[in-house]
Amino acid sequence: MKKLLVVISIFSLFACSDNSSVKMKGSDTEVNLAVNLAEQYTKVNSDFSIAISGGGSGLGITSLLNGQADIANSSRPLSDKEIEQFKKANIEVKTVVFAEDATAFIVHKDLPLEEIDLETLGKILKGDIKNWSEITDIDLPINIYGRQSSSGTHSFVKKKLKIEFSNAAKEMTGNAQILEGVKADKSGIGYVGAGYVSHEINSNALIKILKIKEKPNAVAYSPIDTETINNSLYFFQRPLYQFVLAESWHKVKPFIDFEKSAQGKKMIEEHGYYIIEEK
Fewest CB within 10 A of the end CB: N or C in the chain? Predict the structure, then answer.
């Protein structure tokens, strides 16, 4: 994550105070990909300047409302409340769906658990199941590594499972913190973007991705299996959004076009995300 922050700082230096500069804020799920796409695009168009930061989907959308961003990266759609806020402020927003993501649930590699059903997962995250001994042979209190409430991933998981998170859940600021937390904690469980964590899965990995099944006797699916995602079989898969101020569209569109180009699509896939083909 330290390397990523350095890259973001470099892009912030590129960003000038004039109207040609683009400001992108929001989803931590998308920030690594956004930085790398921007880095490559500036090689194609050296006149393009952009400042990129994370902080969560909610922060990005709020920044768009406050005129502090041109693009809000978001791992969730706009809420009804946010739509109404944009209407009241007379702000027109264009919506771009540029990729699809899946939320992965991770545990330490030494935890004797490979898959989990939705009911059990929900009970863990809301605090009804507090010890791994209730579902495994290991007697360890469960530590939950989650995101802050402004995170689109936090909202997504909460809505999909129809739960309220346990008050004991640790609220982390991004994927990197959750990943490092679970790596160091044999009793930990957390959720991160599958694209963010897919490269971590190898013979030396300190974490593993749980397969998810909707019911105890159902088939379990992995969020890093391309065929599973292409067939919409994974319960926690979702589109990734970019909300763009209509008044900024003229300076943002060349970058959006690059994302949709063959080079951009290749980068999206290399980061572990999936392409949504336009119909």
Answer: C
